[in-house]
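Curious: why these numbers?
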Amino acid sequence: MHRIALVDDDRNILTSVAMTLEAEGFEVETYNDGQQALDAFNKKMPDMAVLDIKMPRMDGMDLLQRLRQKTTMPVIFLTSKDDEIDEVLGLRMGADDYVKKPFSQRLLVERIRTLLRRQDAMNGITPEEVDESNKVMERGPLTMDPLRHAVKWKGRDVSLTVTEFLLLQALAQRPGFVKSRDQLMDVAYDDQVYVDDRTIDSHIKRLRKKMRQVDDEFGAIETLYGIGYRYNEE
């Protein structure tokens, strides 16, 4: 059973979403603010967190920043309908997805299931189940091990979220070939989940930033404006 942490200062949202997720078979923990959640996470990390952005004591952005120092677990932001800047900033900081308030609880459940399926696929495959997409891939200085969710660039470890890993894997599998944003959406999300171009762009920017933290000359991911992205093997 997956453990989902809900962090929001709106008790009505906590109660209603928790009831929905528990009915779907999840174990749910609820927190009223980011500091309360962080204190609990330091003792035991959940499988996924759903965070409101605007909260007292510690907001969702601050909590995400602290979480990304120690975990790559999937994170979904809950945002108000006018918080477009916060959405982009959250994705650049390492959130995997966002859902706008007021939201369909069914949509939230589907997004949670999507990210958990991706996480489980990376963490739970046995050696007997390895196929071509799960074998260790080497592309120049890049090494990716899907079974261990491990990435190295020039021998140095790079910590990626599930979404970032999937996007890099999709690009690096065929160096020199262009992947459109629509194709990358299909890689990172299920068909029933819609995200816009900006979401993919934000994940790519975050991915580049992480690669440049280990190599400030990293330039293997090329943007083709109006078309998409491609990986150029060095």
Summary: The chain is about 40% helix and 20% strand. The mean pLDDT is 84. Residues 105-123 form the longest helix (19 residues).
